Task: structure prediction
Amino acid sequence: MNRPWTLASSVAGAVVVALDGTVLTVAQPSLQRELRASFAEVQWTSTGYLVAVASLLVFAGRLGDRYGQRRLFGIGMLGFGAASAGIGLAPGVGWVIGLRVVQGVFGALLQPATLGMLRAAYPPDRLASPLAVRTAAIGLAAAAGPLVGGALVTGMGWRAVFFVNVLHALAFGLPALLWSGRPPVPDRTPLDPPGAVLLAVTLGCLVYAVTARPVSGAALALAAVTAAVLVRHERRTAGPLLPPRVIGSPAVGAALGVLVAVSASLFGTLFVATYVLQRRLGLDPFDSALRSLPLAVLMVLSAALCPALLRRCGARVTTAGATAVLALGVLVLSGATATAALGCGFALLGAGFGTVMVAATQVIVRRAEVTAAGVAGGLQQTALNIGPAVGVAGATALLPAGPGPALLALAALPALMVPAARALPGRAGVTSITHTPDEPVPAGGPARR
Result:
């Protein structure tokens, strides 16, 4: 597999999805005015996408393991681009909502493949560097998104922000489908449709429940019931959707938990910080974006430095330290009003999140066999979709008590997950590819990771 092309494709896929989310936020007020939509309808342009993505990520990863990550990546990119073009031409808000759901389906096909391709192209002990490049690109997209979206909406209208995706989709989606290299190793593991349906219902209900206003108790209850049925089914089926060697690994479980906690804390904090900057301090959106710019800058720098930290300290110490740094950043913001204090708080947030993203993702992806890399990528992406939904929902519920108490609660969330990092591998687990206790060595052959 061509490594430079694979890395470029992985970065392009991640950036397209990241940009789409940030520019939509900027475009929503203009969209609402032009299409005469209600606030509830505008909210569903985001909720419909999130529910579709979160529901299908893991099963999409399984499809990539079965039929080839490159093929799923190509289908996902082209479908995402086609849905984006359709949204740009939509005559009404109902069409926008429906096509955002379609876009979410193709986004679910695309996202796990961006990680699965990296796992197939790079040996386990060299994964940290491409993951760092990918994370840094996401950080740049997060910083550029509001600026690009604002410029496009101001100059060309809200529809332009969706047409931007079309060129990237064609540039990377078509080569991925037309590439005639060596086909993937056949994988005869059953797809487990019942498990896929149960997981989709569980995750979809969970995301809907926490994004609904007010929180939907019925959806939460249904998610709990289907989760219990899913656990029972996965334990009994011969070919589970969630391979025990992936989901049963203490290191993978800890890494997923940390990702959920830090992403919930980050996005909940950004939600509260936007309220503080614009409502309390009276800043306009552009000035607010400038105040938060250190977050994106430090996210890029920390991602670039993380591979060296992993080699020197291991995933355990690196992740625990970065999680604590992120919690400290939220604490600083809880009492900040001056520009310098705000910049320091946002910088700590970016440094912590960028480092955790690379370190935890590296643990999740490298611990999976190549034939389960898509599922591992789907789990990582699921954590990064559920975390923000939970964080924003929690921040919304806590904000009436004041931004200070809300931010203190959001700081406690990652702080409580610092001990979980003890389950991650130490320095030896990063610099070598030897057998570890939760990775049994196949009989008659060396350990594989």
Remarks:
- Residues 57 and 108 are 5 Å apart (CA to CA).
